[in-house]
Amino acid sequence: MSVHVSETKVVRGACPHDCPDTCAFLYHVEDGKLVEVTGDPDHPMTRGGLCVKLKNFAEHHYNPDRLLYPMKRVGAKGSGQFQRISWDEALAEIKSHWTDIIEEHGAQAIMPHVYLGHQGTLNGLTSGDAFFNRLGASVPEKTYCESGSSTAWIMTVGPTGGLDLESLAYSKYIIVWAMNMTSTNLHAWPFVLEAKKKGAKVVVIDPVRTRTAKQADWHIPIKPGTDAALALGMMNVIIAEDLYDKDYVERHTLGFEELKERAADYPPEKVSAITGVPVEDILALSREYASTQPSAIRQGVALERSRGGGQAIRAITCLPALVGAWRHVGGGTVEMPIWEFPTKFDAICRPDWIKPGTRVVNELDLGPALTGELDLDPPIKSLFVYNSNPVSQAPDQAKIIAGLKREDLFTVASELFISDTARYADILLPAAMQAEQYDLMVTWGHLYMTLNQPAIEPPGECLPNVEMFRRLAKTMGFDDAYWDMSDDEMLEAFYDWDSPQLQGITLEKLKEKGYMRLNVGDPDKRAPHAEGNFKTPSGKCEFKASAAEDGNFVVPVWRSMYEGEQSGEPVDPLPDYLPPYESPESNPELAARYPLNIVSPKPHAFLNTQYGNETVQQRRQGEQVVLLHPDDATGRGIEAGSYVRVFNDRGYFEGRAELTDDMMPGLVMANVGYWPSLTRTGTSVNAISSGQHCCLGQAGTYCDNLVEVARV
Ligand SMILES: Nc1nc2c(c(=O)[nH]1)N[C@H]1C(S)=C(S)[C@@H](COP(=O)(O)OP(=O)(O)OC[C@H]3O[C@@H](n4cnc5c(=O)[nH]c(N)nc54)[C@H](O)[C@@H]3O)O[C@H]1N2
Ligand SMILES: Nc1nc2c(c(=O)[nH]1)N[C@H]1C(S)=C(S)[C@@H](COP(=O)(O)OP(=O)(O)OC[C@H]3O[C@@H](n4cnc5c(=O)[nH]c(N)nc54)[C@H](O)[C@@H]3O)O[C@H]1N2
Ligand SMILES: [Mo]
Fold it and tell me: Residue whose CA is closest, atom 4 of ligand 1?
C-alpha cells in the first residue's frame, strides 16, 4: 500500500498590480498546484493582509476563462470567435502582416498600446519598449495615469520620493487630498490610524463623501477640478496671516514673492465661489494646516483628472515648503516614491534605437487615431495591445470600438483573458499570470523592492511578456544581445546596483528575503527635505518652476523612451487655477444640455478592469451604480434603485441609481472598471469621457465631463 504524501512548498512573491501597496506574497503550493496566496506577515506595509481583490488570487490563476493558447480570429471583428493556433503560426502571421505593412507604409504604421496591467520590471509598462523601438514603430505616449501628477511634482520638488507613507504615523495633521485611500491605498491606512490614535486630525478633500471620508475627522466636499483654487486660497490665508515659515521659505524655496502675488488673487471669498467650500472652512483648514506640525498631505492621482489638475498638484506640492512641514519626520507630501528606485530606463527601453523623427502618438488619443480623425500619416495599420484594456479604460469608447472594427487594421492582443479590447483582435497571445513568472517589482507607494518568484508552471502555452518579446524579436530577425539576456541578466542590467539606495541589496538576497527596504533612512527618522535638498535645478522647492521655461513637457511614470516632447498649452511657471473644460461655471452652453459633473473613480473590488470578470469580486462590487444627490433625482423622475442612463454627445452607459447626500448636488459618481460586455448596454463609464488632456503631462481628464441623467 502506498500513501500519497503531498509535496508542499511556500514561495515568496509580490503583487503584480498597478497599486501603491505592492504587497509581499507567500504562494502556497501543493503538488504543483497553487492552493493559496497570503500576505507576508513580516512586510511592514502588507502586514499579512491582502485586499478584497486578491482574496481568491490562487483561484484566479485557474479561472476557466483564461486564454491558454494563441488564437486566430475566425468570425467578424469583435464577434469573439477564435480558433486555436500554435505559437509558431501566430508569430509567422504577425511577421507576415508586419512585413507587408512596413513595406507599404513604414514601421510607424504599427502602434504598440500598453499600460500597467502588470507593474513588473520584466513584464510591465516598459517590457515591450526595446522591441518596438527596434522595430521602428510609433512611440506610444503612455499618459493614462500619473503623468500630470509626475510632471507637476518634478517641476516643483524634482524626482524625490518625498514623504514616506510609513512616516504618516508621526504626523499630527493629515490631509488626504483626492484619494480614496481605504480602497486604493489600503495598506497605508493603518499609518493614518496610528497617527489618529495619537491625536492627529485627518481631513479628506473629495467631492464625494467616500468610505475614506467617512472615517476621517473632517470631510471637505469640493467641486471637481477646482483644487488649485483651494490650495491658492490656503496660501493666501497663510501668507496674509503670517503663518508661513519665513526661515524655511527664505533658505529652501524659489519664487516666493511671485507666489505671494499670485496667491493674493485668491482671497477666501473668491475661492469659496469657485470650489464650493465655505469661507470659514477655508480659513480653518489654512490655519490648522499651517500651525499643526508635522502636517502631511497624501495626494491622490485623481487630482490630475481635469484640465487644471497639473497646476493643482503644483500648488498643493508648494504648501509643505511654505509652512515648513518638511522640517519634521511625518511632515511634507507624497506623490509617489517611485523616484527613489535607481531604475536604468535607458537600458530597459533603449531610446537609442528610436530613429530620429519617429512620431509619438498619445495612447489616450487611440479612438481618433484609429478612426482617422487625427489624420496620421502613415495611418495606423496595426495595433499591438498588451497590459492594457483601452476599450474599457480609455476615453471616447465609441471611437475606439469603431476604430478596432476597421477591416484593414491588424490587431494583436496579449492577454490573460479575452478582454473587451482583446475581443477585437486578429491574433490573441496568451500571457502568464503572476504566480507563473519571475519579476522584480518596484512600487509607487513604499520604499521596498519586492521579488516575485514563480511558484507554478504556466498553464497551456501562456508566456510571460518578457519571453513573448524575446520570441517576437527573434521572429523579426533582431540579433542584438538584448534578446539573449536571461531574466536575471536583465535585472542586473536594469538597476544601478551600485547606487547608494541599493547598497547591501542584491538579487541573491532578494531571492531569500522576498523584499528589502531601500537605503533611504528609517520611517521614524526620515525627513528628506528638512534641509532643502530638493532635486530641482535650483535645489529648492520651486514655487516658480524653472522647468516651465522650456515649455510643456511630459514625465510619464516609469519614464521611458523619450523626453521633452513639447505639446499642449504653454505652461505658467507659477501655479494657477484653470477652470475645467466642462463644468456648469466654465461651459454654461454645454451645461444647458448636460448640467451634471461626473467623476469616475476606482472600484473597490476590481483593479481597473481586472477581476471585473470574477464572480467573487462582482458580488463584492455589486452592479454598476450611479450615485446622485436626492435633489438631482427630483424633477428627473428618478427613484432610488431605478435604472438610469447617463449620457452626453459622446455616448451613454446605464446603472442603478443610488440617492445619497454623500454627493454634492450637481455631481454624479460612477466607478470605472466594469467590463462593457458584461453591462446592460455593452458600454461603460468611459463612453461619456472626453479625450481632452490635462494642462500638464498630457494626462487624461476622466473627472472633467458633463452629462445628463435620465430614468430608463
Ligand atoms: N481598489 C482599487 N484600488 C486601486 C485601483 C483600482 O482600480 N481599484 N487602481 C489603482 C490605480 S491605477 C490608481 S491610479 C490609484 C488611484 O487611486 P486614487 O488616487 O484614490 O484615485 P480615484 O479612485 O480615481 O479617485 C480618488 C478620489 O478622488 C475624488 N476626485 C475626483 N475628482 C476630484 C477632484 O477634482 N478633486 C478632488 N479633491 N477629488 C476628486 C473621487 O471622488 C475619489 O473619491 O488606485 C490604485 N488602486
Ligand atoms: N473613467 C476613468 N478611466 C480611467 C481611470 C479612471 O479613474 N476613470 N483611471 C485611469 C488609470 S489611473 C489607469 S492606471 C488606467 C488603467 O488602464 P489599464 O492598465 O488598461 O487597466 P487594466 O484593467 O489594469 O488593464 C490591464 C489589462 O492587462 C491585462 N494583463 C494583466 N497582466 C498582464 C500580463 O502579465 N501580460 C499581459 N499581456 N496582459 C496582462 C489584464 O488582463 C487587463 O485586461 O485606466 C485609466 N482610465
Ligand atoms: Mo492609475
Answer: 184
